[in-house]
Amino acid sequence: MISTPHRVFVTGATGFVGLSVIHALRAHGAVVRCLVRHGSEQDLRGLEAIERVEGDVRNAHGLADAIAGCDVVIHLVGIIREHRSRSVTFEAVHHQATLNVLNAAATVGVRRFLHMSALGTRPGARSRYHRTKWAAEEKVRESPLAWTIFRPSIIYGRGDGFVTMLAGMVHRGVVPLIGDGHQRVQPIPVEQVAEAFASAIDLPATVKHTFDVGGPDTITMTALVDLIRAVTGKRRVLKIHVPVRFLRMVAQLFQPFPSFPITPDQLLMLEANNTCDPAAFFTTFGLTPVALRAGLARMLD
Ligand SMILES: NC(=O)c1ccc[n+]([C@@H]2O[C@H](COP(=O)([O-])OP(=O)(O)OC[C@H]3O[C@@H](n4cnc5c(N)ncnc54)[C@H](OP(=O)(O)O)[C@@H]3O)[C@@H](O)[C@H]2O)c1
User: Fold this and answer.
1) Is 65 helix (H, G, I), strand (E, B) or coil?
2) Which residue in 120, 191, 213, 253 has the most C-beta neighbors within 10 A?
3) Triad 290, 146, 216: Cα angle to 5°
4) What CATH number should be reported for the domain whose range is 7-155+188-214+275-287?
């Protein structure tokens, strides 16, 4: 008997992770419908076979109609920078919007809800990014839907924000580091995150589970810069250790300018280690950990 393909509604589909998730879903034979903000349509160029619905997760109106007919929702929307003048706040985009999507999904009888959170999310976290991600997780856990939550450390791959930015600095030969640069991260390739989302749909054991997601290597920011330098064949890079207090002041001052690479909230997150035990993630989804050096070499080739 041929089973009916899943119809999957994806929010955040035009983003870095979203595009990979679409590819993974299609490889699994799913029919994909994406929520696309007005003006972001061009980000889905080359993906003509997927359905698109225009909308904004901050606006509950019309979301249920947009999701109707889908049996799975993958909720990826998230922001790293607030734009208060446009009401783009962590509270609105992470917490309230998740509630909007959950309510709409429940209204139209969605079977599975896969939610993107972030490693470091916890009650009372220092950054508002993490606190609002926690509030969103709480809403997911309270919902009657069959949910799964993913909490990744840094996700890397072509088109990402973080490693691509570091690689650009390495290429230019100067990299500012936060304080001593000893903060540890555990980058994971985007393809593996996407594959886990696609497989989770049909893995009942993942229902009501939260997965910490990270690669096999935990690495300090200083060592990450050195690794990128080695992988890209750059001979010398000047690492400038910027005192945290000074960076805080500068990030605060330049907060209104989106071209400034770091916000005060991001700084709070990057000051702390962002690592986990990903064993359950790799075992449950049958994924083979990819050594960071190999993953970066493939990405930055
Ligand atoms: N990248 C990482 O290292 C990392 C690590 C841990 C967790 N995460 C989480 O993973 C998720 C995806 O991250 P990403 O790196 O792919 O981010 P991204 O590239 O910035 O993509 C964000 C996506 O959300 C959409 N979006 C933002 N506000 C929206 C709104 N109000 N209504 C509808 N869509 C909206 C964006 O649409 P537009 O194209 O219209 O802007 C885009 O599709 C986020 O929840 C993030 O917190 C990422």
Assistant:
1) helix
2) 213
3) 15
4) 3.40.50.720
Task: Please tell me the residue having the least CA distance from ligand 1 atom 34.
Answer: 12
pLDDT for position 50: 92
Q: Mind listing the pLDDT tens digit for each residue in 184-212?
A: 999 999 999 999 999 999 999 999 999 99
CA 44 to centroid of chain Cα atoms: 18
CB 24 within 8 A of CB 197: yes
Confidence label for 2 from pLDDT (cuts 50, 70 and 90):
low
Using the atom order of ligand 1, give the atom closest to the CA of residue 13. Answer: 43
- Listed residue (188, 102, 97) closest to 151, CA to CA: 188
Which string of DSSP letters, residue by residue, matches 17-45? Answer: HHHHHHHHHHHTT-EEEEEE-TT-GGGGT
240: helix, strand or coil: strand
- Closest protein CA for atom 47 of ligand 1: 78
- Inform me whether the pLDDT recorded for 252 exceeds 60: yes
Q: Whose C-alpha lies nearest to ligand 1, atom 21?
A: 15
pLDDT in tens, 84-133: 889 999 999 999 999 999 999 999 999 999 999 999 999 999 999 999 99
Determine the distance separating the centroid of ligand 1 and the alpha carbon of 301, expressed in angstroms. 25
CA of 268 to the centre of ligand 1 (A): 19
What is the arithmetic mean of pLDDT over 26-44?
94
Q: Are 258 and 104 in contact (CB under 8 A)?
A: no
pLDDT of residue 117: 98
- Cα of 221 to ligand 1 centre, how many Å? 23
> Can you tell me which residue has the tokens 């896969």?
114
Report residue 288 as tokens. 């083979």
- Determine the Cα–Cα distance for residues 182 and 228; give it in Å rounded to an integer: 16
Contact between 20 and 194 (Cβ < 8 Å)? yes
Q: Over the chain, what is the mean pLDDT?
A: 96
